Amino acid sequence: MRSDAAFQKRLVTVKLSIDRHDLTLIDIAAKMQGARRVGFIIEAAFRRAEEVILDAHTFLVAPPRFDAFEAALESNSLEGNRKLAELLERPSRWG
Questions:
Q1: Is 49 helix (H, G, I), strand (E, B) or coil?
Q2: Phi-psi region of 76 (alpha: psi -120 to 50; beta: other; left: phi over 0)
Q3: How many domains does the chain have?
Q4: pLDDT tens digits along 23-48
Q5: In a domain, 38, yes or no
């Protein structure tokens, strides 16, 4: 972990209340990875935050490009695209 003054000023303290059983599980997993509890929790929370943000699937596209995208979708129906149909039939990972 960096120790310079500029980095230390960016740190924020977060207090948690956690079930003892959950904490034991976290401690076991952290130890298995050779990590400290706090680092393990921060890394897990960061990974989950990235996953949630990336799963949002928000795309900003200029109108002409969106029109071209929409036309491409309409010209390639599901009937002629078995792989796309299979993909759309799969249950989502996020429930």
A1: helix
A2: beta
A3: 1
A4: 999 999 999 999 999 999 999 999 99
A5: yes
